[in-house]
Design goal:
There is one protein chain. This protein is α+β, with helices and mostly antiparallel strands and 464 residues long. It has a domain of 147 residues: Outer membrane efflux proteins (OEP). 69% of the residues lie in helices and 7% in strands. The chain contains 11 helices and 4 strands, in the order αααααββααααββαα. It has a 4-stranded antiparallel beta sheet with strand order 1-2-3-4. The longest helix has 72 residues.
């Protein structure tokens, strides 16, 4: 009996082995593609922690970066290595790669056995055995693999886009914290000035040189300054914890320090020629949307090609041993008749999803172009304001302070006038810090809007 069944299935099993013999679940090459694109877009490396070895390597790399004051590049690198949300996103690559392997596998053959026992002689049992395989599955396998391959490429692009967005978010959080800490340093300088002013007012009040109203006004200025410092310190705590969360740090690793101060705003804006074209080329969410459209087009072709055979085509062999010891053996064919369900609903659904994906792609491209233009305008405005403070406002305040100091030395201005001039100069410095922070945040947002760095990238995700 088994020899006869082998006769019917040898060709089919040979084809099955031909299509599925090399299948393996190994997402490492696909993650390597994502890692290369992440490096091109962010300048940093990523690591997918799947074993203890990678875990120890990441821990050592993070520890080394935290031993010295944290820079913007160090913060981004730690987040891309250590953020557990990103690690969870990397698993999408493994899921999609496994689904690609699954799409390349044939369904297992179905074995059936029927045993019938007579109620009268002859007492031999009637035995029927059959094996069947869905051969429609074999013919649709290449197209199924194309759909799954498109899904994998889309997943890789989505993961890459998450990495770019994470880098941008870390930069914004880092620049905000840097500016906040620098702001507190300036506020403390103002606080020292107001402390001196309040002490001077108390002494002058005792000497009868000022009245109680002047003393209370100076005390009020000091208290307002103290409240402002406390509020800024509270904001530092929140900003620091946000950056700590993005970097995935806890325990002793949270005792990091930010390096230096906010970088100087460059005199010239970075080159941003052909900004919209650059965004269309670099933005990974746009590329992922294109792959979504391609995947659904292939799905429409697959569903349309098999709509009249929704249940498949089962081809196999059957053998039956009768009580009279005779045996009947032959092929079997099972086809579901498309009388009620002709696949029209599935086709309509697939076509609607394809049109929906195309509309979403068009919307995304329009929005991406707009975001690129908007980010360019915001960067220009922030750059102009920062330059205005640095080149006009600060020099003017310093000149006023210098003149106030000269008049104080010649006893033409009083102590309060000098303190006020110094306080106003520090206030302008605070505003200048805020303008610089706005510039660097706008710079990080512009990188996100164009999908990474402000230069054309040398590589793209490889389609396998």
């Amino acid at each position: 009996m088994m020899k006869r069944l082998t006769f019917f299935f040898a060709p089919g099993l040979g084809l099955a082995l031909l299509f599925t013999g090399c299948a393996s679940v190994n997402p490492s090459p696909d993650f390597a593609d994502v890692a290369q694109v992440a490096h091109d877009h962010t300048g940093q490396k990523i690591e997918w922690i799947q074993h203890d070895r990678e875990d120890h390597e990441v821990a050592d790399a993070v520890s080394a970066l935290l031993k010295r004051p944290l820079t913007i590049d160090g913060a981004v690198q730690i987040a891309l290595l250590n953020n557990q949300g990103l690690q969870a996103t990397y698993e999408d690559i493994g899921v999609s790669q496994a689904e690609l392997v699954q799409a390349g596998l044939l369904k297992n053959p179905t074995f059936s056995g029927v045993f019938r026992f007579p109620d009268r002689p002859p007492s031999a049992a009637d035995i029927e055995l059959s094996v069947a395989q869905d051969f429609l599955d074999l013919f649709t396998l290449p197209l199924r693999k194309k759909v799954a391959a498109a899904e994998l490429e889309q997943t890789k692009l989505k993961v890459g886009n998450e990495i770019v967005n994470m880098a941008s978010e870390v930069k914004e959080a880092f620049y905000t914290l840097q500016a906040e800490e620098e702001l507190v340093r300036r506020l403390n300088l103002v606080l020292n000035l107001n402390q001196n002013g309040a002490e001077l007012a108390q002494e002058q009040r005792k000497a009868g040189n000022v009245d109680e109203l002047d003393e209370q006004n100076q005390e009020m200025v000091l208290n307002e300054n103290k409240a402002e410092v406390m509020q800024a310190q509270t904001e530092i705590i929140a900003d620091r914890e946000k950056l700590t969360r993005l970097m995935g740090l806890w325990g002793a690793a949270t005792e990091w320090k930010v390096a230096d101060q906010l970088p100087e705003v460059p005199a010239l804006l970075p080159p941003v020629d052909r900004l919209e074209a650059l965004a269309m080329k670099q933005r990974l969410d746009v590329a992922a949307a294109r792959h979504e459209v391609e995947k659904l087009r292939q799905a429409v072709a697959l569903i349309g090609g098999t709509r009249y055979l929704p249940g498949g085509v089962m081809l196999g062999g059957d053998t039956e041993s009768n009580p009279d010891h005779s045996r009947v053996t032959g092929p079997t064919l099972d086809i579901q008749l498309p009388i009620f369900d002709q696949g029209q609903a599935q086709v309509a659904k697939a076509v609607a999803l394809e049109r929906q994906a195309e509309a979403k792609l068009r919307e995304l491209t329009v929005n991406a172009r707009s975001e690129a233009r908007e980010s360019r305008a915001r960067l220009q405005a922030a750059h102009d304001l920062a330059q205005f403070y640095r080149n006009v406002m600060l020099p003017q305040r310093m000149k006023i302070l210098q003149l106030a100091q000269q008049q104080y030395n010649f006893m033409l201005k009083g102590t309060y006038d000098l303190l006020q001039a110094k306080e106003l100069e520090l206030e302008t410095e605070r505003s200048s810090i805020g303008a610089a922070r706005s510039y660097w945040i706008a710079h990080a947002d512009m990188e996100r809007a164009v999908g990474g760095t402000l230069r054309e990238l040398p590589s793209a995700i490889t389609t396998r």
